[in-house]
Design a protein that fits this description.
It is built from 14 helices and twelve strands. By secondary structure, it is an alpha+beta fold. It folds into two domains: 1-166 and 340-500, no CATH class; 183-336, no CATH class. The strands form four sheets. A five-stranded antiparallel beta sheet has the order 8-7-4-3-9. A three-stranded mixed beta sheet has the order 1-2-12, sandwiched between helices. A hairpin with a 2-residue loop joins β1 (25-30) and β2. The two termini are 27 Å apart.
Length: 500
């Protein structure tokens, strides 16, 4: 940070010359990355719904496409993107209501050093927290804490119960996901294979892998080995349900060219909770490629019940599916935004995963770790509903990056330009955390009363003039460089995003 300018006379004169521009433009950004939003054509336009901004990142068609499809469908999954004309006003109203709530939870991001030799000198793992009021204790029937949005009562009349964690706006998708997770969990609890697996997981967690139980010896050997080798992860029923939903959300079901029921079944059976190497046989077996099975072996009746009764897939043709199945399919990609915290995991899991699994050393909140996770960015005036919308805007591009996971991406600098975030080549946990913050800027720009901009602070006159010198636009707001910055007395030289 730099101190305030020492040439007050020049600053005042230049401020007067360009003051007329201050009614036309605002700029929002995190740290040294900022983005102009022209109030002249901002989101107060006429028509059936409030229009998107027309400048800055919103001049890039991909931004509006991502917002309309992914934020829009999580508010109204029952509508197609072209039919959904009211979600933006509903988002603005929910953000305004949350802004006016006292002592509301807020959003933040965390980091934790890698649990490897010299991990403290390597780039730290990062996760996004969508509500600071996250639950830290696991219910008696679960291994890990449950997210607030899966504890929310979606049957209650809107406005009759408190919604500090920003769940109610997404009632149409989150309520379906809540019902689906319950259905899958109940189905798993009727499976003898799953009961055996869950008993083994509880034993491994209770003993931290130091004692082999004689009960379920075969399953115990399978799971304890892959757990120690980091080729599998330990899941409870809700987390296993999340995994099924994740694998079924990657592709649009209408584009599947296989029999749909068989395809859905294959995704349900595939899991990172087990890793079995199939023995190589025959001549020259040592030259053959290693074959791996990632199926726990759930009973056919269990899988059939999940396919038909939970996901409502009763036909091999997408066109013949009931309407509720199609609506549920549109809701699946909203699931990560319903969690209290989320992260990009390492192998063997695919992104995204819930970051609340507190016992596993591969996660963020394990209290037994020598160096626990720490907040790196905290936004105490930004409500969870804004953070969840930002997750909807940022998760899809990251998960579908063309080159997949790349460990060395996004290591330079603390901010990512929006163009890189909206069309990334690759992803990792650091890319996602930075791009979620970039998406939070976009959500801020969608709120006409700055409801999602609570952590923006006024820029000084000197900062405004420097910003104007950079791209001939005066800025009045920026975002602090970290949660400990004491601005408004200071200013920072701001350059525009390279998003176009």
């Amino acid at each position: 940070m730099t101190s305030q300018s020492r040439w007050p006379t020049a600053s005042i004169l230049l401020s007067v010359v360009f003051s007329w521009r201050m009614g036309l433009a605002h700029r929002y950004g995190f740290g040294d990355k900022v983005i102009q939003v022209s109030r002249g054509d901002n989101i107060t336009g006429a028509g059936a719904y409030a229009s998107f901004p027309k400048t800055g990142a919103w001049a890039h068609p991909k931004t509006a496409q991502l917002a309309q499809e992914h934020i829009g469908k999580c508010i109204h999954p029952e509508l197609t993107s072209s039919e959904n004309v009211k979600w933006l006003k509903e988002l603005q109203a929910a953000a305004t209501s949350a802004k006016n709530s006292a002592d509301s939870p807020y959003v933040e991001t965390y980091s934790r050093e890698l649990q490897v030799p010299l991990g403290q000198y390597m780039p730290h793992h990062r996760a996004v927290v969508l509500t600071s009021g996250r639950d830290e204790e696991a219910p008696p029937n679960m291994l890990y804490p449950e997210s607030r949005c899966f504890q929310f009562n979606y049957m209650a009349e809107p406005g009759t119960i408190k919604d500090p964690h920003g769940c109610g706006l997404f009632n149409n998708s989150f309520s379906r996901l809540q019902t689906l997770r319950t259905c899958i969990s109940d189905s798993l609890q009727k499976s003898e294979t799953w009961k055996e697996y869950e008993a083994v997981v509880r034993d491994i967690l209770a003993n931290r892998g130091t004692r082999i139980s004689k009960r379920y010896a075969g399953m115990h050997k399978r799971i304890s080995k892959c757990s120690k080798d980091y080729t599998c992860v330990l899941l409870d029923a809700p987390r296993r349900a999340d995994e099924m939903m994740k694998y079924l959300s990657f592709k649009d079901w209408s584009e599947i060219n296989k029999p749909l029921k068989a395809w859905v079944e294959s995704k349900i059976r595939y899991t990172a909770s087990v890793y079995d190497e199939v023995p190589r046989t025959g001549k020259f077996r040592w030259l053959k490629k290693k074959t791996v099975s990632k199926q726990l072996g759930l009973e056919k009746e269990t899988v059939d019940h999940i396919v038909q009764n939970c996901f409502h897939v009763t036909s091999d043709s997408f066109a013949e599916l009931p309407k509720e199945a199609k609506t549920l399919q549109r809701s699946l990609s909203c699931n990560p935004s319903a969690w209290d915290s989320l992260e990009v995991p390492s192998k063997p899991q695919a992104p995204m995963v819930n970051a609340a699994t507190m016992w596993d050393a591969a996660t963020m909140w394990d209290k037994s770790l020598f160096r626990p996770s720490q907040a790196i960015w905290s936004f105490p005036n930004t409500p969870p509903v804004c953070g969840r919308a930002a997750a909807m805007l940022s998760v899809w591009p990251q998960v579908h990056a063309k080159k997949g996971f790349r460990q060395r991406n996004c290591l330079m600098g603390e901010h990512q330009p929006w163009k890189t975030c909206s069309q990334p080549d690759a992803f990792n946990c650091i890319c996602f955390e930075k791009c979620w913050r970039a998406a939070l800027r976009r959500v801020c720009e969608l709120t006409a009363d700055d409801s999602c901009c609570g952590d923006a602070v006024p820029m000084t006159v000197a900062g405004q003039i420097r910003s104007w010198a950079a791209d001939f636009q005066i800025s009045r707001l920026h975002w602090p460089d970290s949660m400990t910055d004491a601005v408004p007395q200071t200013s920072r030289f701001h350059w525009p995003d390279s998003q176009l």
